[in-house]
């Protein structure tokens, strides 16, 4: 297939590219920069210039393709609500190009949208449209397109990790350096789901090849890693003490990360594994945190 990949030079997109190419797909990669274009060309990817801020540029990319994987997202969490709305507009633009066809559009969301009840593992069968996470805008956009006959399915992401980045955990490194301690909230028993980068890239390929309208997949290798264990791993790597922060002081310590630091949001991928035959093989989150070169990260 000719697959238009948004976010093709990003953390996750750059892992999806070789996964698609080795499976024989032709990749049309979105980039906004000359440097990104050179990177994609060197990888054997057709370049398409586009930005999330210009939905029409995304629609033109989709028009060239047999399928779309939408992996781009603006990760400036100081403008999280605004960026989720921007993602909704991007999804609508991509879907416009596919109306009247059965070409698959894979969009991206978070595992939290599968939580009907906080603290219980999120599942693929649930789409909690009343969830307080602003990322619900992405799935609401996908639902509208699905009702309009567009072949939309969703990959829901946990904390995606390798030895360089780990989703929401990456900013915790900067916070720990700034504060001089690696912290968790309360007893640190709340859990973050996790998935290795290469396993996640494989899941996107399997999802676009299956092309099942309305399907939701959880890219989860580990159902829930306790935040105390995460903080302890960061403490080892940074050579900093690990401490507990009282919940009422979380906002003062973590800043914008406080909205996530104390949440318990485990997630299951049982149905995803069954339907797609997906078997995560990458290292676990703590193993990657222990293998990370924190000196290089600082540089």
Would you mind describing this structure in some detail?
- This protein is of the alpha/beta class.
- It is 41% helix and 19% strand.
- The strands form 3 sheets. It has a 7-stranded parallel beta sheet with strand order 3-2-1-4-5-6-10, sandwiched between helices. A 3-stranded mixed beta sheet has the order 7-9-11.
- The longest helix is centred in the first third of the chain and has 19 residues, at 80-98.
- The chain is globular, with a radius of gyration of 19 Å.
**Would you report the number of β strands?**
12
Basic shape: globular
> What is Rg?
19 Å
Which percent bin holds the helix content? Answer: 40-55%
State the end-to-end CA separation: 40 Å
Mean pLDDT: 95
Trace the largest sheet across and list its strands: 3-2-1-4-5-6-10
Describe the sheet with the most strands. 7 strands, parallel
Unreliably modeled segments = none
Q: Report the sheet-strand fraction.
A: 15-25%
The string of secondary-structure elements, in order, is: EHEHEHEHEHEEHEEHEEHEHHHHH
Please tally the helical runs, counting DSSP H or I stretches of 4 or more residues: 13
Q: Strand pairing plus helix content: what structural class? A: alpha/beta
Could you list some keywords that capture this structure?
299 residues, alpha/beta, 7-stranded parallel beta sheet, 13 helices, 41% helix
């Amino acid at each position: 297939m000719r697959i238009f990949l948004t976010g093709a030079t990003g953390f996750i997109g750059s892992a999806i590219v070789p996964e698609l190419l080795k499976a024989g797909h032709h990749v049309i990669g979105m980039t906004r920069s000359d440097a990104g274009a050179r990177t994609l060309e060197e990888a054997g990817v057709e370049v398409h210039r586009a930005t999330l801020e210009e939905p029409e540029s995304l629609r033109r990319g989709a028009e060239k393709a047999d399928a779309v994987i939408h992996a781009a997202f603006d990760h400036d969490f100081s403008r999280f609500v605004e960026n989720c709305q921007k993602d909704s507009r991007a999804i609508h633009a991509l879907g416009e190009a596919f109306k009247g066809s059965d070409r698959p559009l894979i969009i991206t969301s978070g595992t939290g949208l599968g939580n009907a009840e906080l603290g219980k593992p999120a599942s693929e069968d649930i789409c909690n449209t009343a969830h307080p996470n602003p990322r619900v805008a992405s799935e609401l956009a996908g639902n509208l397109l699905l009702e309009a006959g567009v072949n939309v399915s969703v990959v829901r992401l946990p904390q995606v990790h390798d030895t360089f980045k780990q989703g929401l955990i990456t900013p915790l490194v900067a916070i720990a350096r700034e504060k001089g301690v690696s912290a968790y909230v309360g007893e640190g028993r709340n859990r973050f789901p996790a998935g290795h980068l290469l396993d996640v890239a494989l899941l996107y390929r399997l999802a676009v090849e299956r092309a099942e309208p309305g399907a939701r997949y959880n890219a989860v290798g580990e159902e829930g890693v306790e935040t105390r264990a995460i903080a302890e791993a960061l403490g080892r790597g940074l050579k900093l003490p690990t401490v507990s922060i009282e919940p009422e002081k979380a906002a003062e310590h973590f800043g914008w990360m406080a909205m996530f630091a104390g949440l318990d949001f485990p997630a299951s991928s049982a149905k995803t594994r069954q339907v797609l035959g997906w078997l995560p093989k990458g290292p676990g989150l703590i193993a990657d945190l222990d293998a990370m070169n924190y000196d290089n990260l600082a540089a």
